[in-house]
Write a structure and sequence with these properties.
heterodimer; A: 268 residues; alpha+beta; 3-methyladenine DNA Glycosylase II, Chain A, domain 3; Alpha-Beta Plaits; 3 domains; two-stranded antiparallel ribbon; 8 strands; B: 445 residues; alpha/beta; Rossmann fold; globular
Chain lengths: 268, 445
């Protein structure tokens, strides 16, 4: 009995030792040279693999920085601190990253304000809803409310509100831009964090056509772009929608006040 | 041919409900007050409006011009004044730029519509030009420009022409009635098509549930001595899909991603053949078509000769309106048709029927998880795996969906019809086809 026990322990243990040793040897002998800088950069990146830098994932970006000299400040989610760390690892002068941005939902047509034109019973995906007569929302520009942007967010920075519109949790938003490309209707947009006021509508229609499908849609009345409202010229009309040129102008608040459809959104 | 069982793999047997309208002779719908002519009634590039608001037009006047080769013009279907050119709801999707014409009640024909003497003597190129100018697009539903189908590349000669009178979609009887009431025009259209193609073999495919049409066409062919053959086909859906039709009749298989011309075949719908005859023999553009208005939700099912652009509401009113329990109106048949949210949408060149379903019929059961029974696999006439495809598309694995051949799906709906879990395969597949096409485009770029 004892012999059986001991021999099997020795046998299996011996095999383990043998394979362990040969693996250890092989890992040294056949090791692939990796620039330690790449590993180091990967360790500092957020590792969400969002692709905002334009490279395939965080390791792709790290490799590009080290091997082909990609810019050190391309990681939007990481922001300035990661840019500085990457620059330090590479031994180059830190470059100032772009302005800090945040994603916003440019639609206020929730279940109450913007009626649906038919009952949608298809799969839960905005692109799929779009192929059925252009979506169930009567406004062909408005949010379809099926949460494709929420699904696309790798940082859990979005959720669907009870009113049928998505909500951006700004503290978590890294401005990677995946929600922007996920939306079939171009409702998500990245704006500078410093910009407190934006237009919550993307409808290119005018007046009556907007009123018929949404209570809070921009009718293109041009009141906000009028010099009487915004003397500094901070808003101008682009098509039937106002465009904010000077995002921090003081007179924007007046435009919010004057807007008859309350189409502007003021961020907290 | 001996071993050919004149059928195809897969398919389903939905209840037919043809009896609702198949004995109703085609009636002309009274002229509508106003017509809505969308610039996009065909596959391909949208046409471009060439009239202005306020212009006077006559029946058959061109109101929008084809843009490019794979595109066809559209024509005024009533005489009157152009009231507006704006976006209007379209029965196949979204809001489409449309030309709205208000009737003057005179119904004056355009001067260009007149009988052409000895029309069969025209040469093929001229005929094709006329067919495009007449705005012809496949009238079976897909609305592909007819002249493009009639112009195969020189390395792919067509040796077999098939006239599609299968009409396998339940409820619809427009093609059936057309075969019974206008058989001579249809046969003349077939002769024109075969002359253009220069092909010798021609078949007329009719499902066996239309014995009167089969007998009539056979009688006419016996008299005229044409080298055409009427082929009675087993009743099975989707027998009228062109690839399935080619398989059943010639036993040739259109390769994946290929077109009928890859196996030397061409298929046209009976409605299209009649329209080709009209275009060649009298320069008459496509401004009217036969539409079946049917379903348990319609008081009196009818087959109507309707001007293109007539709002659905007019047709339904003429048929006595809808019953109280009607909750769904479909453009087309129950298998492939698209539900409508408004009756302001116009009849287009591809509208073969308007179907009203009652609450009990239109009930949409909640989908449940797939139990892997593979009934959809058995039913798929294209040899695809609908269950697997729906799953990979749900998880956004579009490259895998592409490998599994999602682009070959003909969206016939057989998979969803047999599914015991009521999974909405077709929506997944339509969505997947779109996403895969997008993916391939971005890869190519």
């Amino acid at each position: 009995m004892d012999i059986v026990l001991i021999s099997s322990i020795l046998g299996i243990g011996g095999l383990g030792l043998f394979f362990g040793a040969s693996l250890a040897y092989a890992s040294r002998k056949f090791a692939v040279e990796v620039d330690p800088k790449i590993e180091e950069i990967i360790a500092h990146l957020p590792n969400a693999n969002c692709g905002a830098c334009g490279f395939p994932g965080c390791s792709g970006y790290a490799e590009a920085v080290v091997k082909s000299g990609a810019k050190t400040n391309l990681c939007t989610p990481g922001g300035q601190s990661v840019a500085d760390q990457v620059a330090e690892i590479m031994g180059v002068a830190p470059v100032a990253g772009g302005e800090k941005m945040v994603a916003v939902v440019q639609c206020r047509g929730d279940n109450e304000n913007a009626p649906k034109r038919y009952h949608y019973a298809g799969i839960t995906n905005c692109h799929a809803a779009q192929i059925l007569m252009g979506g169930d929302k009567a406004c062909v520009y408005g949010c379809l409310g099926l949460g494709t942007c929420v699904e696309a967010c790798p940082f859990n920075a979005m959720k669907m509100g009870d009113n049928g519109l998505p909500i951006v949790i700004e503290d978590k938003c890294t401005a990677c831009g995946l929600c922007v490309s996920a939306c079939p209707r171009g409702i998500m947009k990245l704006i500078p964090v410093a910009q407190k006021i934006f237009i919550g509508c993307v409808s290119q229609d005018k007046g009556k056509a907007v009123k018929e499908v949404c209570k809070v849609g921009c009718t293109g009345c041009t009141l906000c772009a009028n010099p009487k409202t915004t003397p500094s010229g901070s808003i101008r009309m682009k098509g039937n929608l106002p465009e904010i040129i000077n995002v921090t102008a003081d007179d924007l608040e007046k435009a919010v006040e004057k807007c008859p459809t309350k189409s502007f959104v003021v961020r907290n | 041919m001996i071993f050919n069982k004149q059928t195809f793999k897969g398919g389903v047997h939905p209840p037919e409900y043809k009896e609702l309208a198949e004995h109703q002779a085609i009636e002309a719908l009274p002229l509508p007050q106003q017509v809505i002519i969308p610039v996009q009634q065909h596959l391909g590039a949208p046409a471009e409006p060439i009239v202005n608001v306020g212009d006077e037009v006559k029946v058959g006047d061109k109101v929008c011009e084809a843009k490019g080769y794979v595109s066809v013009p559209s024509h005024a279907s009533i005489s009157g004044k152009v009231k507006a050119i704006e976006k209007r709801p379209h029965p196949v999707g979204g809001n489409v730029l449309s030309i709205i014409i208000e009737s003057d009640g005179k119904d004056e024909l355009s001067a260009s519509i007149a009988p052409v003497p000895n029309y069969l003597a025209q040469d093929a190129a001229e005929m094709k030009k006329k067919i495009q100018a007449a705005g012809l697009a496949g009238m079976g539903g897909a609305a592909f420009p007819t002249h493009v189908k009639l112009s195969p590349p020189s390395d792919k000669p067509i040796d077999t022409f098939i006239l599609n009178g299968a009409e396998c979609e339940p409820f619809l009887t427009a093609d059936h009635r057309l075969m019974l009431e206008r058989p001579n025009e249809i046969l003349e259209g077939v002769r024109i098509i075969m002359k253009i193609l220069g092909c010798k073999t021609g078949y007329i495919a009719v499902e066996k549930n239309k014995p009167d049409a089969i007998a009539l066409l056979q009688k006419l062919l016996d008299k005229s001595g044409d080298a055409l053959k009427v082929v009675p086909l087993n009743v099975k859906y989707p027998q009228g899909a062109e690839k399935q039709l080619i398989k059943a009749i010639t036993n040739r298989k259109v390769p994946a991603g290929g077109l009928p011309m890859d196996v030397g075949c061409l298929v046209h719908n009976v409605g299209t053949a009649k329209a080709i005859y009209d275009a060649i023999s009298s320069n008459k553009p496509l401004y009217e078509r036969v539409v079946t208005v049917t379903g348990k939700g319609i008081k009196h099912s009818k087959n109507l000769l309707v001007r293109i652009g007539t709002p659905f509401q007019n047709l339904i009113d003429f048929c006595g309106g809808i019953t109280e329990d009607t909750i769904k109106i479909i453009n087309g048949g129950p298998m492939m048709g698209i539900a409508q949210y408004t009756l302001e949408v116009p009849v287009t060149k591809g509208t073969s029927g308007i179907l009203a379903l009652t609450k009990a019929e239109a009930k949409l059961p909640e989908p449940e998880p797939c139990i892997r029974c593979a009934r959809c696999v058995d039913a798929c006439p294209m040899n695809l795996l609908p269950n697997t495809l729906a799953r990979v598309i749900e998880y956004k694995r579009y490259d895998e969906a592409h490998q599994l051949g999602v682009l070959d799906c003909i969206e016939c709906g057989s998979c969803a019809f047999v599914c015991p879990s009521k999974i909405r395969h077709i929506h997944f597949l339509k969505f997947g086809k779109l996403e895969v096409t997008k993916m391939l485009k971005s890869k190519a770029a």
